[in-house]
Design brief:
Strand content: 25-35%
Shape: elongated
Largest sheet: 11 strands, mixed
Structural class: alpha+beta
Distance between the termini: 15 Å
Helix content: 25-40%
Radius of gyration: 21 Å
Number of strands: 14
Order of helices and strands: EHHEEEEEHEHEHEHHEEEHHEHE
Length: about 325
Amino acid sequence: MFDIVRYTPERADEWNLFVAQSKNGTFLFDRRYMDYHADRFADRSLMFYDGRGRLYALLPACQENGVLYSHRGLSYGGLVMTEKSTTDDVCTLFAELNSYLALQGISRVVYKAVPWIYHRLPSEEDLFALFVRCHAQLVGRDVSSTIFAANPLKWRRDRRYKANKARSNGITVCQSDDYAAFWPVLADNLWSCHHARPVHTLEEIKLLHQRFPDNIQLWVAHSADGLLVAGTVVYVSGGTVHCQYISASPLGKQLHAVDALLRHILTEAYHDKALFDLGTSNIPGGHELHTSLIFQKEGFGGRAVCYDTYAWQPQQAVGS
């Protein structure tokens, strides 16, 4: 029923148009975003055409050592669909995908579904197909913290106190394009707290902001004397706002700048958005919870949403 075609750069416009019209795609699947780190991954993205030759679905993917991943350079992946996608068709698609991958010598598929908080319409046809056609197993579960704007939980008392204290300390919040000023604050905080580095270099995030100025935005907090003491890079995808990075300097922590920053973002800057995703709080794969980090996010009213990863062997999953 489906013609499976490997993505090539010549199909970029067709790919991007489909993503823009999809019911569960975000700007992360736009090739202008995906391809910023094309040198790090062997792209193996697939396009699915129906019997009439119309593009039906996309699968952002890369390949390494005989394993197909969807996609290692993204926080989530999965099948990108439109409102015309049906459960029966998607089950057929995955059965045919399994046969195709087995013939291509793919020994294993690692699949990161798009979390439901990024769906424009219900889009879990793929999860059912993974169960009935792929017999996939859950191999990873990251826990994020999400706030419903229409029904927000009351901030914990210490968070409210610190946000009010930040205001009395003279903390001000504004949008900024000065990524160069924020990046040392972010890098120093990540290293001192987690022995980690930002996923993006300064040059990369500036490039991506240039390509997606309405989707990637920086908000910063300044002390009373004008020093940048905290910031967050937000990714705006439809009705969902995701805090990609949140960091403060030592002084910013003393002044409770992050509390002021998030209060402004949640109540003023994006008051018209439905969901706020404060990001994951566990070691990748989900086997160890970062308790202090999630405690902070839950203090702002965030509650758990899972980012799931599945795996299966395609040669063992053909048929119903």
